[in-house]
Hints:
Blueprint: E1 2-3, E2 9-10, H1 19-29, H2 32-38, H3 52-55, E3 70-72, H4 80-96, E4 99-103, H5 109-123, H6 127-130, E5 142-145, E6 160-167, H7 181-205, H8 212-215, E7 221-229, E8 239-244, E9 250-255, E10 261-265, E11 268-271, E12 279-283, H9 285-290, E13 300-303, E14 310-318, E15 329-330, E16 348-349, H10 350-363
Parallel strand pairs: 3-4
Antiparallel strand pairs: 1-2, 4-12, 5-6, 6-7, 7-14, 8-13, 9-12, 9-14, 10-11, 10-13, 15-16
Helix pairs in contact: 4-7, 5-7
Amino acid sequence: MTITDNGELQTEKVSEYDREREIQEFDDSKAGVKGLADAGITKIPRFFHHDESAVENKPGSNVSTLSIPLIDLKGLTENAHLRGQIVDRIKEACERWGFFQIVNHGIPVDVMNEMIEGVRRFHEMETEVKKQYYSRDNKRKVLYNSNFRLHQASCANWSDTLYVFMAPDPPPPEELPEVCRDIITEYSKQVMNLGLTLFELLAEALGLNSNHFPDMDCAEVLRVSCHYNPPCPEPHLTLGQRKHTDSAFLTALLQDQIGGLQVLHNDQWIDVPCTPGSLTINIGDLMQLVSNDKFKSGLHRVLAKSIGPRISVASFFRMQFDESSKTKVYGPIKEMISEENPPVYRAATVHEILSCHSYKGLDWIPMASHFKINGSISD
């Protein structure tokens, strides 16, 4: 893989485009998109190109004044009346948007800032140092790569990611990169505590006992994805993350001030603001399934930008994926079902959900749609 004088990535033959070879050479470099940016390319490789329809409606073309709900958690545990108001706001946000932002959530700002800096330190290490973590073995608890499904997806995202599985069995400290070891450990502890609070509020919003979701083991498994989107020379041709829903129960996102996250609402892409001190929370496919469509899994994407890097940390609360859990079944909660509200989804085993998840990245159809009782699959 070489860079030409005009800043283009080139394989051995100029006249013939060998997509698989270009992808493999990129993957073998283990340098990620940051390596391309550092090399000074002016034209991004063709496998990063998205259809024009996928990248349309860039900032500036969207005249909507809509914004995702911002919810202040201050006083949550001290005032029962205020707690009820917060629960009502969360219920409305989950039903209408599948997204909301929270402030006064209990995670100190200095911890959040240091987490962003820790992710920056990792991704800006020398490539030769980072290579030891580069892998496509998703059984590893700590791995770094560019594009989780690079070889399967129709087009790549302008993004590198460090993945860390932090619960229920975190990796030994020595397996974590030293430059971000302490802050990943501390931040994950804080997010796990916040997750318990959020699951309580979600349960109350559905009229359930506050412990319902922890009792379903929804709050036990945490994967932390540390994204790095360097400046892109052709942001109009690609995306930082293509449109998708999250497969998890719940996601808590920390992002820096660069921006780029958008949520699809009323057929419009709505920019998510970078509110200081906030976290962005979104419902995942599994929560949509168990809530019997009461809560919606929000479709979202990340724009590529000519400035940056953009740094974000997505913390996913998901089901256990080990061998002992494959026969466990998830379906609509019985309290969510009645004659007026029959089940929208059938129950599915973890094995079935995993099988669906393995090719979810190829079509971007919300995972829950594969288990609809009527067999229809929505966009």
